[in-house]
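PROTEIN–LIGAND DATA SHEET

This sheet pairs a single protein chain with one bound small molecule, zinc ion, given as SMILES. Inputs appear in the order they were entered. The predicted three-dimensional arrangement of chain and ligand is reported afterwards as a token string under its own label.
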Amino acid sequence: MSSSDPDSLVLTLLGTGCPIVDPNRLGPSALVRAGGQNLLVDCGSGVTQRLVQAGCPGRDIDALLLTHLHSDHVIDLMQLVISSWHQGRQRPLKIYGPAGTRKFTTALLAAWRDELDQRIEFECRTSVEGLELDVEEVEQGEIFSIGGLAVNAIEVDHRPVVPAFGFGFRFNGRHLVLSGDTTYCPGLIEHAQGCDVLVHEVFIHSQIRPSGGTRSSRTMENVASYHTLDDVVGRVAAEAGAGTLVLTHFVPPAFDEAALEETVRRSWDGRLRIGHDLCTVDVGGSEPPGIGQ
Ligand SMILES: [Zn+2]
Ligand SMILES: [Zn+2]
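PREDICTION REPORTED AS:
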């Protein structure tokens, strides 16, 4: 169950919310640990605080995987870079992301260049490697394999955001799949066949209403069209034959859990977990995937 077990593949959901601010569910991000690697998936609001709470400060992240460049998934990237540097990071941060990632990170660093230069000079900082980003734009397929951990990018359907990825992690005979942001996506289901744990986003269509000024019915229709609805996500897990379905990226972030479970249960009778911030899942462990605080 612990990340110190060399044979385990451990997932920690860091933030399970969405752009709507909720103090209990921070922005989307997750930590995957296996084979001595600490991989961060996305960089939602509050990710650096959650990493410290999870016992893995940003300093110790080996690579960041970006599903796509929507603001709720990258908003705290600069905070991650700066806080990791203050935590003593002395190596560049490797980032794997979709086309456009390099343009985004170059502009982000440029916006902070003057502040960084002044700080480095005035504070007589000697190490600046921890402020550097090493970006690799990826396509569908295996991204890398290290320490027995193989990571795959899976193109998902989040149109008009193209490309957008989910990620698959295989380690020691275990298979974990994270959907990223997507509507019902046959390619994701194909990749996730027989996986131990499928972590999937969900748009709780039955519990969100148009709201004057910010969400018209047209807004709701369009947003729903590129996410996976609460009455569809169970079918995704069933068609994938997943061992356990873990839900995350809840829109809205405050909702009736029992009602959501009842909706998902109409098409999914396997193991189901409503994720929450800092819950941990031992993927494919000897016992059924456990979720602890
Ligand atoms: Zn998105
Ligand atoms: Zn999102």
